[in-house]
C-alpha cells in the first residue's frame, strides 16, 4: 500500500456508500431457500432531522444486520417513515406549508442524513405510511376487521386533548397527560371507532410467556400489568325495601366485582362510582340534599387523575342493601376512588383488608371488621394499614378456618350454587379507540348512509384518499369542513351519503409496517401483504427500539399480528421474536432534546470525523440497553483509534488468504498478539447475536491491535488485520471495507476458523500451600521441570519458611505445591 496515506473518512465513506448502492448489496435476495434474518430498527417519524437517538438505534440494528450478512444469511434490513400524524399539521398551521409537502421534504432530507451514516438498508423496500398505496391496504384491513366485528363504532367517554384537538387512546395518556404534547387530558363524550383488542386479551397475555428471555422482562411486566387480568366473583347486592321505594322500579340492586370473595363477611359498606346509574337516578331525584348533590357533581367534574390524587371522598346515598349471607343492612356510598369503567363500577368494601376501603372508612367513621387472621395481624384490625394478605378466614361462618385461597373458591362455588353470582375474569385492557379528529391521517373508510346507517366503503373504491385542498387552521377537523370531499354515494344502496371524516390513529400504521416490508415490493401495488414473502421473512428476528413503546406500539403491533393472522395474511403469533430496548442518549446527565438545549447534531459529528467515528463512539460508549452519556473526548478517542488502525494498515503486507502460521515456532509477543486477535474473534458471535455488548468487542479489538503493534511478524500482523477488519466491519463499515479491500480483496470472516492452538497457554498457574494453608500463587512456563517448580515455590514462600524445617514436598502437576513444615 501507498506509504503515509492519511485517513480521510469523508472521501472513503462517500466512495463506499456509492459502491454499496450501485451493487445493491443490501437488497434482500429472492432465494427463499436461504437461511434468513429479519433485523429491524423502529422506523422514524419524519420530524425534520436525525437525532442521536436515531443514530444509536440505527447503528445497533446495522451492526447486527451486517454481521448476519457476513455469516451468509439472507438479510432483510428495511427502513421507512411513520409519516402521518400531528406535527405535520402543526407545521402547516405555523409555517403555512401543506402537511404533505412538509412531510415529504423531511423524508428526503432525513433519507440523505441516514445515507451518510452508511446504514445497510434496503432501498427498494423503503416506504412512507402516508403513501396512498399504504393507506389503501390499511383501509382494506379496516374493512375486513369491520366485517368480522373487530371494529365497531360507539359513543363513549374519551380522552380528549384540547391542545391537539383530538381523541387519545388510553395507552396514549401518560399520567393524565397527552403522550405527544404533555397537556392535561380531559374527558368528553364522543362517537368513534374502536378496535376490539379486548377480544385478544387472553392471547396477548398468554403469549407473553413465549417471549420470556427474548424481550426485556420489564417490558413483559408492563404489558402484563396493562392487560391486567384478574379473577374473582361478581354478584348482586339487593336494595332493601325502603331503598327500593326511593329508586322506583328501575333498580332492585347492583352488581359488584371482587377478587376477594373470601372477605365477604368483612363488608361494612358498599360504594358506587359517581357515574353509576343509581347515582344518576338519585341526583335527578329529591332524596339527596343539595350539599351531597353538589359534592357528587364536583367529583364528576374531576378527571380520573385528579380523583386519584385527592383524598378519599364521597357521600352516603341514604339507601341500603342486604348482605347476601348475613342479611345485615349495609349502607351504600358513592366514592371518588371507584372507577366507572372497571368491573361493574361498584364494590363491596372491606376496610379491614383493603387499603382504599380502610382510608375511606376512617375518613367517614364507618365500622371495620377483621375476617382474616395472618401472622401479622393475629386476627385483629391493623391501623393505619389494612392487611390485604392471605391468611385464614375468621368471623366468617361458612368458611372459618379455610385458607384465603380455599375460602375464595368456596365462596365462588357457594354463590354459583345459590345463583347469587358467578365467577368472572376482568381485564384492565380496554378497546383501542382509533378515531382522530385530524386531517393528516388515513381516512376511516366508512360511509354514513341515511338509509343503511354505518356502511363500510367498497374495497374497489380504495384508497379513500385525502383531498389536497384543505384549510388547516387548528380548529375543527379540516375534512369535516371541506366543502365537497365528504359527500359521496352509499356503497350499498347508492343514495347520497356522507363520508366519515375521522382519520385513523397513527399507531395503526406502525402496527403492520413490519409485515409490509416483508412483502416483495414488486407486489406492493397488487396486494397488501405478499404471502410468500411474509411467510419467509416474518417474524422479525431482532427488533430494536425505545422503551417508551413498551406498551403502546408493542402492544398494538402484537394485536395486529394476531388479527392479520386470523384474517389469513400471516402465520406467526408474534411479530417480534427478540426485542432490544436501547437506552437514552444523555448529555450532562439529561436526555438529549431540543427543549433542554443540549443537542449534539449528528451531521456535525459526521462532517468533522466521519460516520465511522460516530458509529464507533455510539457502540463503544455503553452497552446498548444502558443510557449513553455523550462525551466529546470519547468521540475524539474513537477517531484516534480509527487513525491508528488506518496508519498501521499501511505497513501490512497484502495477501489473498489468511497466512498459515506455525504457532509453536512463534515468540512470546507474536503468540500474545494471536491470542488477543482470536480472543476477539471468539467473542464476536455472542456479541452480535445475543448480548449486543459491542463495547466489549471493540475493546477486545483495541487490545488486539495493541498486541499486533507490539511484535513485528508480518504474517501474524496480516492475519490479525484480516480478522480485526472483519470483526469491525459491522461497526465501522467504511474504513473496514476500504482497508480489507486494499489488503485482502474484501473477504469476510464467515470463513475464519477459530484455532484452538492459539488458546493453549504456555504458562501454568501454581498455588503453594504450607501445612494446608494457601500462601502464594505464581505463574511459570508450562515446560518447567519438577525441581524448577519446587525451587520457585520455596522462593515465593520464603518468609514462611525462614528457620523452619521442611519435612515433605508434594508437587501436584500443573496445579499445586504442598510443603509440610515442622513447628
Ligand atoms: C373486596 C376486596 C377485599 C377487594 C380486599 C380487594 C381486597 P384488581 O385486582 O385490580 O382486579 N374494585 C372492583 N371494582 C372496582 C372499581 N370499579 N373501582 C375501584 N375498585 C374496584 O382489583 C379488584 C378489586 O378492586 C376488587 O376486589 C374490589 O375490591 C376493587 F381485601 O373487593 B375487592
Ligand atoms: Zn345506503
Features:
single chain; 823 residues; alpha+beta; Rossmann fold; Isoleucyl-tRNA Synthetase, domain 2; 7-stranded mixed sheet; 4-stranded parallel sheet; flat; Methionyl/Leucyl_tRNA_Synth; aminoacyl-trna synthetase; Leu_tRNA-synth_edit; cytoplasm
Account of the 3D structure:
The protein has 823 residues and is an alpha+beta fold. It folds into 4 domains: 26-129 and 203-223 and 510-630, HUPs (Rossmann fold); 138-196 and 434-507, no CATH class; 229-427, Valyl/Leucyl/Isoleucyl-tRNA synthetase, editing domain (Isoleucyl-tRNA Synthetase, domain 2, Alpha-Beta Complex); 761-821, Ubiquitin-like (UB roll) (Roll), CATH 3.10.20. Helix content is 37%, strand content 20%. It is built from 27 helices and 34 strands. It is flat. The chain starts with 8 loop residues before the first helix and ends with a strand. The structure holds ligand ANZ and zinc ion. Ligand ANZ binds next to β11 and β15.
Calculate Rg over CA atoms: 35 Å
Q: Tell me the count of domains.
A: 4
Uncertain stretches:
none
Q: Percentage of helical residues?
A: 25-40%
Question: How many DSSP-defined strands?
Answer: 34
Alpha-beta classification: alpha+beta
Instruction: Give the CATH class of the largest domain.
Output: Alpha Beta
Instruction: Using the alpha-carbon principal axes, give the shape.
Output: flat
Taken as a percent bin, the fraction of beta residues is 15-25%
Which fold does the CATH topology of the largest domain refer to? Rossmann fold
**Gross CATH architecture of the largest domain:** 3-Layer(aba) Sandwich
Q: What's the multimeric state?
A: single chain
In whole angstroms, how far apart are the ends?
Answer: 70 Å
Classified in CATH, the superfamily of the largest domain is HUPs
Ligands bound to this protein structure: ligand ANZ, zinc ion
Helix tally equals 27
Summarize the main sheet.
Answer: 7 strands, mixed
Amino acid at each position: 500500500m501507498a506509504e503515509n496515506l492519511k485517513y480521510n473518512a469523508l472521501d472513503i465513506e462517500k466512495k463506499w456508500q456509492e459502491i454499496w448502492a450501485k451493487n445493491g448489496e443490501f437488497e434482500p435476495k429472492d432465494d427463499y431457500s436461504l437461511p434468513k434474518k429479519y433485523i429491524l430498527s423502529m422506523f422514524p417519524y419524519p420530524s425534520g432531522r436525525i437525532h442521536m437517538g436515531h443514530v444509536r438505534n440505527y447503528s445497533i440494528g446495522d451492526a447486527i444486520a451486517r454481521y448476519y450478512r457476513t455469516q451468509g444469511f439472507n438479510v432483510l434490513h428495511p427502513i421507512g417513515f411513520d409519516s402521518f400524524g400531528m406535527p405535520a399539521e402543526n407545521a402547516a398551521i405555523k409555517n403555512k406549508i401543506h402537511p404533505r409537502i412538509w412531510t415529504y421534504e423531511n423524508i428526503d432530507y432525513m433519507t440523505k442524513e441516514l445515507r451518510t451514516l452508511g446504514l445497510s438498508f434496503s432501498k427498494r423496500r423503503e416506504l412512507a405510511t402516508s403513501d396512498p398505496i399504504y393507506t389503501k391496504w390499511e383501509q382494506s384491513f379496516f374493512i375486513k376487521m369491520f366485517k368480522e366485528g373487530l371494529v365497531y363504532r360507539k359513543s363513549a367517554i374519551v380522552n380528549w386533548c384540547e391542545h391537539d384537538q383530538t381523541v387519545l387512546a388510553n395507552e396514549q395518556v401518560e399520567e393524565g397527560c397527552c403522550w405527544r404534547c404533555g397537556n392535561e387530558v380531559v374527558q368528553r363524550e364522543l362517537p368513534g371507532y374502536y378496535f376490539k383488542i379486548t377480544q385478544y386479551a387472553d392471547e396477548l397475555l398468554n403469549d407473553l410467556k413465549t417471549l420470556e428471555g427474548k424481550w426485556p422482562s420489564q417490558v413483559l411486566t408492563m404489558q402484563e400489568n396493562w392487560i391486567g387480568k384478574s379473577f374473582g366473583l361478581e354478584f348482586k347486592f339487593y336494595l332493601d325495601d325502603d331503598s327500593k321505594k326511593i329508586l322506583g322500579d328501575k333498580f332492585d340492586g347492583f352488581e359488584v366485582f371482587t377478587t376477594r370473595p373470601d372477605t365477604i363477611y368483612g363488608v361494612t359498606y358498599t360504594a358506587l362510582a359517581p357515574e353509576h346509574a343509581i347515582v344518576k337516578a338519585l341526583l335527578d331525584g329529591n332524596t339527596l340534599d343539595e350539599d351531597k348533590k353538589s359534592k357528587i357533581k364536583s367529583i364528576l367534574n374531576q378527571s380520573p387523575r385528579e380523583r386519584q390524587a385527592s383524598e378519599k371522598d364521597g357521600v352516603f346515598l341514604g339507601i341500603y342493601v342486604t348482605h347476601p349471607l348475613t342479611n345485615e343492612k349495609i349502607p351504600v356510598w358513592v366514592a371518588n376512588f371507584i372507577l366507572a369503567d372497571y368491573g361493574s363500577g361498584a364494590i363491596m368494601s372491606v376496610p379491614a383488608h383493603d387499603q382504599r376501603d380502610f382510608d375511606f372508612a376512617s375518613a367517614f367513621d364507618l365500622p371495620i371488621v377483621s375476617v382474616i387472621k395472618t401472622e401479622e395481624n393475629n386476627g385483629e384490625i391493623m391501623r393505619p394499614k389494612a392487611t390485604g394478605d392471605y391468611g385464614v378466614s375468621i368471623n366468617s361462618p361458612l368458611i372459618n378456618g379455610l385458607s384465603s385461597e380455599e375460602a375464595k373458591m368456596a365462596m365462588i362455588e357457594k354463590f354459583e350454587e345459590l345463583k347469587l353470582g358467578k365467577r368472572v375474569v376482568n381485564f384492565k385492557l380496554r378497546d383501542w379507540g382509533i378515531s382522530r379528529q385530524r386531517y393528516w391521517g388515513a381516512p376511516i373508510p366508512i360511509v354514513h348512509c341515511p338509509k343503511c346507517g354505518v356502511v363500510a366503503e367498497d374495497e374497489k373504491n380504495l384508497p379513500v384518499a385525502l383531498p389536497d385542498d384543505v384549510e388547516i387552521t387548528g380548529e375543527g377537523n379540516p375534512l369535516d369542513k371541506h366543502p365537497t370531499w365528504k359527500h359521496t354515494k352509499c356503497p350499498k344502496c347508492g343514495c347520497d351519503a356522507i363520508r366519515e371524516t375521522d382519520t385513523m390513529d397513527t399507531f395503526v400504521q406502525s402496527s403492520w409496517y413490519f409485515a409490509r416490508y416483508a412483502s416483495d415490493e414488486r407486489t406492493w401495488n397488487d396486494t397488501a401483504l405478499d404471502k410468500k414473502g411474509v411467510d419467509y421473512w416474518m417474524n422479525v428476528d431482532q427488533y430494536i427500539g425505545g422503551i417508551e413503546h413498551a406498551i403502546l406500539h408493542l402492544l398494538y403491533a402484537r394485536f395486529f399480528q394476531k388479527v392479520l393472522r386470523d384474517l389469513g395474511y400471516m402465520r406467526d403469533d408474534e411479530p417480534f421474536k427478540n426485542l432490544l430496548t436501547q437506552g437514552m442518549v444523555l448529555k450532562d446527565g439529561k436526555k438529549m432534546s431540543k427543549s433542554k438545549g443540549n443537542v449534539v447534531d449528528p451531521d456535525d459529528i459526521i462532517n468533522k470525523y466521519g460516520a465511522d467515528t460516530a458509529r464507533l463512539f455510539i457502540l463503544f460508549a455503553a452497552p446498548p440497553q444502558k443510557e449513553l452519556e455523550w462525551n466529546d473526548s470519547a468521540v475524539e478517542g474513537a477517531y484516534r483509534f480509527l487513525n491508528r488502525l488506518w496508519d498501521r494498515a499501511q505497513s501490512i503486507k497484502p495477501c489473498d488468504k489468511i497466512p498459515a502460521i506455525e504457532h509453536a515456532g512463534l515468540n512470546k509477543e507474536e503468540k500474545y498478539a494471536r491470542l488477543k486477535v482470536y480472543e476477539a474473534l471468539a467473542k464476536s458471535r455472542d456479541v452480535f447475536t445475543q448480548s449486543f455488548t459491542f463495547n466489549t468487542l471493540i475493546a477486545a479489538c483495541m487490545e488486539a491491535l495493541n498486541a499486533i503493534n507490539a511484535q513485528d511478524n508480518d504474517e501474524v500482523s496480516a492475519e490479525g488485520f484480516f480478522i480485526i477488519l472483519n470483526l469491525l466491519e459491522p461497526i465501522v463499515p467504511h474504513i473496514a471495507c476500504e482497508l480489507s479491500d486494499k489488503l485482502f480483496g474484501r473477504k469476510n470472516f464467515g470463513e475464519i476458523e477459530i484455532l484452538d492452538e492459539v488458546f493453549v497457554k504456555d504458562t501454568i498457574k501454581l498455588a503453594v500451600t504450607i501445612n494446608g494453608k494457601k500462601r502464594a500463587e505464581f505463574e511459570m512456563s508450562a515446560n518447567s521441570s519438577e525441581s524448577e517448580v519446587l525451587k520457585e515455590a520455596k522462593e515465593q514462600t520464603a518468609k514462611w519458611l525462614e528457620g523452619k524445617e521442611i519435612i515433605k514436598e508434594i508437587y501436584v502437576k500443573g496445579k499445586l505445591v504442598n510443603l509440610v513444615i515442622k513447628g
